[in-house]
Specification:
Strands 1-2-4-3-5-10 form a 6-stranded mixed sheet, sandwiched between helices. A hairpin with a 4-residue loop joins β8 and β9. α1 runs antiparallel to α3, α3 packs across α8 and α6 crosses α8. The protein is about 30% helix and about 15% strand. It contains 8 helices and 10 strands.
């Protein structure tokens, strides 16, 4: 259900916490490829941060050639339906004969920091309004296995964590009202389009929110991020694919062919329409981040999440969601 929320509520006021974002990002800005010390450090930090923020945390540990761990933070864990926010926390591994590694700033770290900062700055809303509801909950998912293994093909997109998440029914797809996947955020002059017909209207509402924030002078100087442009024929491969395609993906090393049907999970892919120039290189670091873009993205997404949650009301069934996981 799409509701014209501009007529339903006054704008909510959330306080920015740039100190928290910077501290969070600093903990993640390190090589985080599978098997590296930084990979385990990033996982432990995300788990600790989610728990400190009041989320019920599950670590879904599994083996697919190697050991992997998806991290999920739940709010209203017994809810029947979930708004799911996702990103990946691993980074690009060094290729054959290469010692240098990418810090994966735009490629994972910024998106993880944004999700944790949204949870931090919306914490009072979660503890108050959202905790009183049982028709909807939040799940923050941090996927492992997005990148190829060390010494694997550099252009292989594995998506091991997100595919396993679907296969295990960790959160049943029929319980997911919307999946918002973040990736490749933080470069200057990137544009964000609508990639799926079934969420065009939601993307356009994000565009309207950004315009309202510009008009009220709440955003930093910089380019307009979201555009009312449909780009259905092209979408970069990312962890949203198994959710929307529901197992109908064909993977190749350098590209991805996808057939999907209308029963897939509604997806908002918050990612540029093309790879930023620093993607997969050692230049993907803090020095090449565009801070106004990041600050504006946080404000836009926070406003959208609040309005979406406040405008949606779902009928309760007689069955309750039973969460299953393997944790420490």
């Amino acid at each position: 259900i799409i509701i014209n929320w501009t007529t339903l509520m006054a704008p909510a006021t959330f306080m920015d916490n740039e100190e928290h974002f910077n501290a969070t990002l600093s903990k993640l800005l390190k090589p985080r490829f599978h098997g590296s010390p930084g990979h385990g450090q990033a996982r432990a930090f995300i788990v600790r941060e989610l728990r400190d923020l009041g989320f019920f945390v599950a670590q879904n540990k599994f083996r697919d050639g190697e050991n992997y761990t998806n991290i999920v933070g739940f709010w209203n864990v017994e809810s029947e339906r979930f708004l799911v926010l996702s990103c990946h926390y691993d980074s690009q591994s060094p290729g054959w004969g290469q010692n240098e590694t990418s810090f994966g700033a735009i490629d994972g770290a910024v998106s993880c920091a944004i999700l944790l900062n949204l949870a931090k700055t919306m914490g009072e809303y979660f503890k108050g309004n959202l905790s009183q509801r049982m028709d909807i909950g939040m799940a923050l998912v941090f996927f492992d296995g997005h990148k190829p293994l060390p010494m694997g093909p550099e252009n292989a997109t594995r998506l091991i964590g997100s595919r396993h998440f679907i296969e295990m029914d960790m959160v049943p797809t029929e319980s997911i009202v919307l999946l918002m996947t973040l990736n490749l955020i933080g470069s200057a002059n990137e544009t964000y389009f609508s990639f799926y017909k079934d969420t065009d209207e939601l993307h356009f509402q994000i565009t309207d929110i950004e315009q309202e924030l510009w008009e009220s002078k709440q955003l930093d100087d910089g380019p307009v991020l979201f555009h009312k442009v449909k780009h259905h024929e092209s979408c970069l491969p990312d962890d949203h694919i198994p959710f929307h395609a529901k197992g109908t993906c064909v993977f190749f090393y350098s590209f991805l062919i996808v057939w999907y049907h209308s029963l897939g999970v509604p997806v908002l892919h918050i990612s540029p329409e093309k790879y930023p120039k620093v993607h997969g290189t050692t230049d993907d670091n803090a020095a090449n981040l565009d801070w106004p873009t990041i600050r504006n993205m946080i404000k836009i997404l926070r406003t959208f999440l609040h309005k979406y949650l406040e405008s949606q009301e779902f009928e309760m069934s007689s069955e309750s969601f039973v969460f299953q996981h393997n944790d420490d």
